[in-house]
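question for whoever is on the cluster today: can someone run the full assembly for these? two chains, 672 residues total. i dont have access anymore since they changed the login thing
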Amino acid sequence: MKTIAAKIWEQHLVRREAGLPDLLYIDLHLVHEVTSPQAFESLRLAGRRVRRPDRTLATVDHNVPTTGRDLPWDDPLSIRQVETLRANCAEFGVPFFDIADPRQGIVHVVGPEQGFSQPGMTIVCGDSHTSTHGALGALAFGIGTSEVEHVLATQTLPQAPPRTMAVEVNGELARGVTAKDVILNVINAIGVGGGTGHVVEYRGDVVRALSMEGRMTVCNMSIEAGARAGLVAPDDVAFAWLEGRPASPAGAAWERALDRWRALASDEDAAFDAVVELDGAALEPCVTWGTNPAQSAPVTGRVPDPADASGEAAREQTARALRYMDLEPGAALADIPLDRVFIGSCTNSRLEDLRAAAACVRGRRVANRVRAMVVPGSGLVKAAAEAEGLDEVFRAAGFEWRDAGCSMCLGMNPDILLPGERCASTSNRNFEGRQGPGGRTHLVSPQMAAAAAIAGHFVDVRDWEMD
Amino acid sequence: MRRFETVRGGALPLNRADVDTDQIIPAKYLKRIERSGFGEFLFDDWRKDPEFVLNDPAFAGAPVLLAGANFGCGSSREHAPWALEDHGFRALIAPSFADIFRNNCAKIGLLTVTLAQADVEFLMARAEELPDAAIVVDLETQTVATADGAFRRSFEIDPAVRRNLLEGLDAIGLTLEREDDIAAFEERRADDHYPSTVPAAEESA
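^ ran it for u. tokens below:
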């Protein structure tokens, strides 16, 4: 009568003591350049070592340029951060996918791609989108730099047990409605703080029918509802996806792993602290209109009127968001003209995302006013997309085709919006200034972003001819 | 970690809900490799508005920040607590905090206090009216009170977090005292069930 989250928790209990948080063992620690330098520095000052370099993997993603990597790089602070990670990995013996490594990419794309992220594991990273790895049936969560240091030094974390929430999406999605729309609708339903303190288990027909990439998109944005983690019980979809990856078990070890993994699913009568149900058949393609990921509406909908919000605080929050986004109450979302389109990020930059976007643009041209870019999630995603000619489809349509990294999801590299620019983005956060100071972000699925790039405004992809 | 001592001083009312860490410290300032120096970039974009409360000299030096629900949502960047701490805040009071942010604060000695929405609203209204009036945040007794004693509330806090804050304990040092437990755990479980990140050739070398 246990949930998968509880099972994984118990399997990783190093020590439980009254009055103290549980000491939890960590199976995989992913490291990147932005949240690790201070952790390594403290480790060095304290004369401590990395306890398990063989359970640690580093790559560069947040800062790196996504174009002209063979040219001199005009950002001394980013260069210093990347060089610092390189030196720290060498000093502490941590495996590192450097910028020229074909496996380099967004840390949450790289882990699953290499088979390092497996069912039943505990996975952490100094990044809130670590919940992505939950798609494989792992308990994966983001941590801060002090905790990064803690895991480097001890391979454990003191943690209070989470509450559990079941998010059940049943029915069948309509054509053009994607994993991204599922999670945006979930966040809209429970709010940006609705998952606080909880590990969310996504369940139901719709979740079962999602591909592994789709499940990663859903789990990725668990943090946007405030959840500590999000996961999906591993099944044949997960196993098929894992089989044959570089770090996946093979031969007899694979068969034994399958037995262990199959036992992870939540027990039939497991009780959750909270249950949320959504009707998959009723979901529509979603567009955010505001400055947090819960502020969204169906693409067929309109910008809300602050006057309709309940309570003074909610009215003011909506009004503030509309002022920042420069939107009029009542305007049709489909009429919003766009300046930029970004297809990428740990939410939507995997091969399936790029295929889906390409299917919407093949043989068409990006609208005149729009600048559009595709940033694959890893070097290997990029190579795989090129092998099937997706780069040509995007280039022929007028998209920029770039190298792997976080890019315009958070604007730490040169890929940023200019003040006032409006962007349809497949990323995960529409916070003020997230993609560049003064920039305006609308979160959508890859299909919605691709079709919007062609049309120059949002369109309902359910009516869009796809190749 | 710095030991938490009772805070007595002004409270700055930031009357907004769902304040995300991208506002607290925008990503472009995360490129430093040091822990210090983030305070000057605290709420960098919002501070460009002269009306923003952090620009109000009446609240200069206030050690307590009052905020709306779900404060610190979004990114896991510890730079957000570092910036708040560097600016001079010692305690944050809100109806709720985002999980990772709250953990990060606890790790650096910055106290997060959860009070009922109505209590936070009361303290905000009072701060707006009487910016100089001090409030007292006492972790020993787990209370928030106005200096005149008219308002007094106790708050809940994880006992282990409370002790760490009061004693300024080094969390890593504490865990390393459990080194035997960690080694025993690794011994007891089938460690080879979990993938190694070290290439096989290197591992056997």
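summary bc i know u wont read the tokens: The radius of gyration of chain A is 21 Å. The longest helix of chain A spans residues 76-92.
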